[in-house]
């Protein structure tokens, strides 16, 4: 659990805050996951919107709260917790009803959430390549240096290695002039492998851990939604996951938290149209348009257009 030490936190005022405060951004996948969880639990919370688009996360004030400069971050009665999955496991303990982590599945959930978090840079790579136009996706070296200089750089009293990993992600984007085909393929393969396993799980149950909605469904709903926004052919590759997703997406208490700011959807649609014309959309970059299994599945589906 990444609960910060007081010495990690430079913005000392938050140590005196009472109640539940969430720092989040509307379009951030990890923030969406936490907001859905809070909504399903019926928990009251104070919102602190941190616009990633305006760079509000790379300021002395915010990096004084989360030294990683990422959203979400939670302040609960003066305790600062970062990392979305840690926030959720903490909240489940503090607000047990309704149950979203069944008591007998805690360890399994912890392991599966860790696997989900390990894919975070992959979902970011696919987002930056296939959802966000490239001019919005890159950070200049000056911004990376500013990021490196802010905050305590310390998490739980020790130098935080994640900060260097974050900086490296953005430097790689500069070196490759965006997300390279190779990086996109790697991310795609990782997701395809996990989603194939989940598709198998859904053979005899409604949700990923059984017949009850759990945090695992919420976490993967968010990733899968983002993958669909990146044109990942979910329903063709993993039909049961497609049905699972449609059922969750029809629920307002989930889909109500994942809307992009107005206009972004339109920009992504334009981006996809341009990428399709240039042969640089996800399906073509990962080589699915040439894969025989994909072609035959597409051919068998009503309304198949590719
Ligand atoms: N492992 C972290 C990842 C947090 C993360 O990467 N947040 C993204 C938004 S989803 C962010 O703040 N990005 C800002 C940036 O990279 O500049 C978590 O689960 O909380």
TrEMBL record:
Keyword annotations = Transferase
Q: What is this protein called?
A: Glutathione S-transferase family protein
Residue ranges of the GST N-terminal domain?
Answer: 18-99
Q: Which domain of life is it from?
A: Bacteria
Q: Does the keyword Transferase apply?
A: yes
- So which residues are the signal peptide here? none
Q: Name one Pfam family in it.
A: GST_N_2
GO cellular component, as recorded: cytoplasm
The record's GO molecular-function terms, alphabetically, read: transferase activity
Keyword hit for Transferase: yes
Species of the source: Sphingorhabdus lacus
Q: Which residues cross the membrane?
A: none
